[in-house]
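Morning F.,

Quick status update on the modeling queue. The single chain you submitted on Monday has been processed. Sequence for confirmation:
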Amino acid sequence: MLNRLLAAAAVVAVASASFAGPASAQDADPLKEATAQIIARFDAALRACGVTPPYVPGVVVDSTPSLVSFYIDDRSVHQSRWSEMPAEIQGMLGGWAAAGTLGLSPEGQFAEIFNSLLVPHELGHFVASFDGRWERDDNWTNEVLANRIAIAFWAQDTAGGAPIADRVENFNVFLSQLPNPVPEGEDPHAYFESHYEALSNDAAAYGWYQGAFMRTAWAGREEATFCDLVKPDAT
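Structure tokens below.
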């Protein structure tokens, strides 16, 4: 969902002024600044592909209702701060970190996934919102597209740290352990669309689907470049 991706992560799982000028030392927020830097690099990558976005998304750190989202109404990526997470989410990240493959602490796992890896996913939704694909395509297709864009971005952006293959594995290992909510014999894509409302309100089921979206995107990583994916005629 465009404005609450991974709200379900609780059980699985630049304010606009950020680009107006340098913040004062008193106003500096490391999380906001780090997210703004990812957005700036994504914006530069878009323009290098010949895509001119209608605006540069801002950053809002509000830690609710979702862990990371892009909102059309205020044109911003909404971020969450580890220190503001309730005990159940911090506990969930303990299990996710223990199952993870990057050797991160719970706080580090939270930052890796929600404050870094998934930011270009949200910016993928931003791209789809201005080129018409968000309204044209179904929910599954939009989620997979956002992951494909994120994977392609991180494959060419070395500032992310670990290789993208390692980061995707670390993301998937926890979600793949969740029970598959798709009845035997049903197609996961078709089932998601026909039961979207119920699945989006079932945290474990929606978490499993987030893993499925990422696995599908990863399987198709060689089919298109970042530039292919961010153009309206991308297939």
